[in-house]
Amino acid sequence: MSILAIDIGGTKLAAALVDDKLNISARREIPTPGSRTPEALEEALSGLVQPLKGYADCFAAASTGIIRHGVLTALNPSNLGGLEQFPLFRILNEITGLPGVTLNDAQAAAWAEYNALRGNIRDMVFITVSTGVGGGIISNGRLLTGPGGLAGHLGHLIADPQGPQCGCGRKGCVEAIASGRAIASAARYELEGLTAKAIFAHASAGNAQARVLIQRSASAIAALIADIKMITDCQEIVIGGSVGLAPGYIDLVSDILNQQPDIYNASISPARYNHNAGIIGSALLALKMMKKEVL
Ligand code: ADP
Ligand code: BMX
Ligand code: ZN
């Protein structure tokens, strides 16, 4: 069995072939189209999967946004604008001519990371700190998606009621403070206009403002983890995304969380599948579908 797995993020689109043993091959990555129109996304996806689709039995797509019945709707349109109702499943089915599955990127990554823990833990939460802040909740061994696909959108819990406006329409969401996009948009003076990646590089080189921006992001994620612990009583928090996996970031979050009373603390680890958690999670879901099993 060969699965064409696709990860659609606010910054990059990735695709790869995944076999039943979860080996990844032929991985390719392109930037998410800047024009942010449905046509541009369709064209980019088509080009991305073109060299791979002939080798696959089905597709599996993990995408940023709320995915309900195969349709993508941006909760935060500034992360992936112009996509009020993007028929993701239909478009990938047309592009590839294959059967497939679609789900939210962080939900997919949570499922992959849960499987990587091999049954040692039944309750875990995955958080991606990337273009946005996403999440996926595994409760008693089951992935929560919710009737509307919304379950786990942890980036839209409130970090600071007086905080910056979030693209979802609410004020002070974790995503508006901690995400890569938020780090970049809070930067001023010498850091203005830089990406979060560049700001991390400045922090490593000792830039004080860059360090404050990263500290602010890590504080919001630490507070989010404490809240998640209270809601789910989870045994493990797994962090992914390019900001989340940046060197030193998880240690910073852990140090801040350690200042809280013990009950708010959780064991935090980096995504075992690294930047491929979404790809592997959607492939696992597709494997289940092809074997006619349910999650
Ligand atoms: P996506 O959101 O498309 O899934 P990523 O997980 O790569 O993609 O997250 C993109 C965000 O991460 C951007 O804000 C980018 O600037 C930032 N970023 C990318 N690489 C790094 C890095 N090495 N260190 C810190 N931040 C990074
Ligand atoms: C946003 C939201 C989530 C997504 C999360 C991480 C949109 C378009 N996306 O909160 O569905 O899981 O960002 O997305 O509303 P990423 O692009 O950072 O991986
Ligand atoms: Zn929000």
From TrEMBL:
InterPro entries to which the protein is assigned, alphabetical: ATPase_NBD, ROK, ROK_cs
Gene3D superfamilies: 3.30.420.40
Pfam families: ROK
A GO molecular-function annotation: N-acylmannosamine kinase activity
Protein name: ROK family protein
UniProt cross-references to PROSITE patterns, sorted A to Z: ROK
GO biological-process terms attached to the record: N-acetylneuraminate catabolic process
Keywords, alphabetical: Carbohydrate metabolism
Protein origin, superkingdom: Bacteria
Keyword Membrane among record annotations: no
